[in-house]
């Protein structure tokens, strides 16, 4: 009986330990206080952990790389000991691909490339307000807001696609274009199919993880799951109290 009890207890402890390790991580979010916090759990039951960095203006996480931008520095968001590299003031837009990323600094209208802790300034120029970037093997794709509309263009200025009038925020991912209107967020796939979610007053969108997007409004933060056929919008824990 004692031997059976010991084996059962050992199995139980091992199962609990395995369960704890298997808690899925949904990525790194930036809350309204500017804290970068790990998000774990599943849709509708997300938990935000303690801040790993503060003073963060923008961030993005892919499968193999997370980046966070403070007012004057760029950091590897997954490494709390990363001293960071100097960068222009203000927030950054990110396009993460594998272990590198394209960046755009709106305050100075400057593009850059990041890899292995080093940042290289790029001599690229585009007309219009840059809203988002996508890194592809055929060169970057850039969402720009111009007088005549919102367009997704190549670096040479050729137009790849158009977004509806009134588009506020855009996020370009592999095979996905996510954009917000006054009272909705639309996920558009490469084949043109779209899924819409009722969210008003979106101020920004960023890549939370490989298959989640952070959507921020003035008083709430959401996670949008982007997997085909499993799209879902969930409220994230935030530093700002929200009554739902």
Structural summary, described in words:
The chain has 244 residues and is mainly β. The protein has a single domain, classed as 6 Propeller (Neuraminidase), CATH 2.120.10. Helix content is 8%, strand content 47%. The strands form six sheets. The chain has a four-stranded antiparallel beta sheet, with no helix packed on it. Strands 8-9-10-11 form a four-stranded antiparallel beta sheet, with no helix packed on it. Strand 6 and strand 7 form a beta hairpin. The longest helix has 20 residues. The chain is globular and about 45 Å long. The N terminus is likely disordered.
CA-based gyration radius:
20 Å
Main beta sheet strand tally, sense and closure:
4 strands, antiparallel
Helix-strand pattern: HEEEEEEEEEEEEEEEEEEEEEEE
The CATH architecture comes to 6 Propeller
Number of strands: 23
What global shape is seen? globular
| Sequence of strands across the biggest β-sheet | 4-5-6-7
**What percent strand?**
over 45%
- Proportion of residues in helical segments: under 10%
Q: What's the short version?
A:
The chain is mainly β and 244 residues long. 8% of the residues lie in helices and 47% in strands.
SSE layout:
Layout: H1 2-21, E1 25-30, E2 36-40, E3 47-48, E4 58-61, E5 66-69, E6 73-76, E7 85-86, E8 93-97, E9 100-105, E10 110-115, E11 118-122, E12 129-134, E13 141-146, E14 149-154, E15 159-163, E16 170-173, E17 176-181, E18 184-189, E19 194-197, E20 202-209, E21 212-217, E22 221-225, E23 232-235
Keywords summarizing the entry:
single chain, 244 residues, mainly beta, Neuraminidase, four-stranded antiparallel beta sheet, 1 helix, disordered N terminus
């Amino acid at each position: 009986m004692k031997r059976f009890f010991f084996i059962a207890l050992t199995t139980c402890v091992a199962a609990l330990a395995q369960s704890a390790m298997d808690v899925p991580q949904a990525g790194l979010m930036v809350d309204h206080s500017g804290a970068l916090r790990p998000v774990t759990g599943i849709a509708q039951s997300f938990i935000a952990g303690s801040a790993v960095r503060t003073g963060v203006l923008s961030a993005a996480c892919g499968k193999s790389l997370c980046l966070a931008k403070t007012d004057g520095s760029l950091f590897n968001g997954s490494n709390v000991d990363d001293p960071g590299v100097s960068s222009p003031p203000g927030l950054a837009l990110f396009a993460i691909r594998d272990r590198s990323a394209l960046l755009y600094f709106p305050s100075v209208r400057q593009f850059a490339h990041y890899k292995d802790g080093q940042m290289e300034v790029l001599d690229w120029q585009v007309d219009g307000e840059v809203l988002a970037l996508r890194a592809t093997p055929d060169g970057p794709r850039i969402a720009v807001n111009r007088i005549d509309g919102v367009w997704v263009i190549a670096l040479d200025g050729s137009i790849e696609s158009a977004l509806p009038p009134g588009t506020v925020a855009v996020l370009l991912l592999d095979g996905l274009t996510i954009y917000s209107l006054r009272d909705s967020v639309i996920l558009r796939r490469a084949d043109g199919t779209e899924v819409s979610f009722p969210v008003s007053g979106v101020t920004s969108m960023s890549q939370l993880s490989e298959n989640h997007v952070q959507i921020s409004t003035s008083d709430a933060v959401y996670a949008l799951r982007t997997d085909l056929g499993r799209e879902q919008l969930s409220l994230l824990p935030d530093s700002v109290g929200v009554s739902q």
